[in-house]
């Protein structure tokens, strides 16, 4: 919408996603300490709806969006236009905080932990919860994106806004590739249930809000990596790895860098998990 370059867009998306995964801590504190899960979901759903309306208006009203591109020349958005669109985005991020932290614990709290059958169903609930998010992502990244490309961003944002009126959940952006998606499913579902089970009853919402925290940190780190890669690869007037024309860049190098960092992260996890198993075994002997 704002006619930003690839690096700037990717960096801003990473920062926004990081913020979206950080705000659940706010919702968790309010839910566990003050409002309860139901009212926290209700209030933050309204906040989310306001953000979606703002974003829809910024993509629909001519005064709130930059002029159309003339060939390869795309005028940048004005500071006021940036302010409106990013205000909508970060109000949405705030709205996510109350929804994302409360919905899992609100649903899981309906199961009786003293009943073995209910405990099994609770485990299935987390799987179905994350499956629903993935299903929403498929719709948002296919049908909604097609509408945005062919009918305009205003209608593309307007449709999710309409659905927001009809539900308390939201369409959340997730990785689209199978292997990355599978890895995220295994990690997210396990972490979500782990934090929920290990939290005391009075802090269940806060516990489930901690599980997306690693997404927040990862996205902030992603923004930092993008900035550093762009800085070092554009020295001497070079185009860099991620220019606006990706055909002239080296995304392959960038993805190799990410793969290497992921491998190091996996090694760190294996070492930490092995140490935890050893300590648990040692405590059992004592």
Automatic annotation (TrEMBL):
Belongs to the major facilitator superfamily. Proton-dependent oligopeptide transporter (POT/PTR) (TC 2.A.17) family. GO terms for biological process: oligopeptide transport. It is a multi-pass membrane protein. One of its GO terms (cellular component) is membrane. One of its GO terms (molecular function) is transmembrane transporter activity. Its main location: membrane. Keywords: Membrane, Transmembrane, Transmembrane helix, Transport. The keyword Transmembrane helix applies. It holds the Pfam family PTR2. The keyword Nucleus does not apply. It is found in: Membrane. The chain crosses the membrane at residues 13-31, 38-64, 128-147, 178-196, 212-232, 253-274. This is Peptide transporter PTR2. It comes from Glycine soja. PROSITE patterns: PTR2_1 (PS01022), PTR2_2 (PS01023).
